[in-house]
Design a protein that fits this description.
The protein contains 5 helices and 4 strands, in the order H-H-E-H-E-H-E-H-E. It is α/β, with parallel strands linked by helices. It has a domain at about 65-200. About 10% of the residues are buried.
């Protein structure tokens, strides 16, 4: 009798244990699925917020206010370095643009290239309001005079022209910028190189 009772007790304990384990597995699975769903929902929300932030940034970059501020700062920097930076033509309309608004042709060059060669490229870039990029300041970051001379020479419509206080040389409608980051991002190891980009 004792053996039978003990046997029945063992069976009932085993059955209860199996029920407890099954319930524990089921509860754990539900909890795990709930956490995963919350994580997915949070990720979707973050992505939506990120996209909205990017849209706001893009809208601001293309705004007249931002472009005007850029032009003002460029003019100040040009004045401080003695560089004659062409002011934006307010009469120029979007219809006169060769490329769609926000699109740019970027020409990567090196100051070690012959200046006459760069100038020939500049004459072509002028037609499409392009941009010339150099990796860094000429002669190092502590020397800005060689860079300003380079920019003054390359942006002249006629390289033989000499700037005078009362009669500055006519300038090409191009920008010259120092942008080592863009060289690295586009893996530019040889120059000249040309890229087409949006929202530069």
């Amino acid at each position: 009798m004792r053996l039978t009772t003990l046997f029945l007790l063992l069976i009932s304990c085993s059955a209860l244990a199996e029920i407890d384990v099954s319930k524990h597995v089921e509860d754990s699975t539900k909890a795990f699925k709930s956490k995963v769903q919350k994580l997915v929902d949070k990720t979707k929300l973050n992505n939506q917020n990120h996209e909205k932030s990017l849209e706001k940034i893009e809208k601001y970059i293309n705004s007249e206010q931002y472009i005007a501020r850029q032009a003002e700062l460029s003019e100040r920097i040009g004045d401080s370095l003695g560089i004659d930076i062409e002011k934006p033509n307010k009469n120029r309309t979007d219809e006169s643009r060769i490329l769609p608004k926000g699109h740019s042709i970027l020409l990567y060059v090196s100051s070690s290239m012959p200046k006459e060669v760069i100038h020939r490229y500049a004459l072509d870039l002028h037609k499409i309001q392009g941009t010339i990029l150099i990796r860094g300041p000429i002669g190092g970051i502590s020397k800005m005079l060689p860079t300003s001379r380079f920019i003054r020479d390359v942006t002249k419509r006629d390289m033989s022209c000499i700037d005078k206080p009362d009669k500055p040389c006519e300038r090409l409608n191009i920008a010259i910028r120092i942008d080592p980051k863009r060289f690295a991002e586009n893996k530019i190891n040889q120059v000249p190189a040309l890229t087409f980009e949006t929202n530069y």
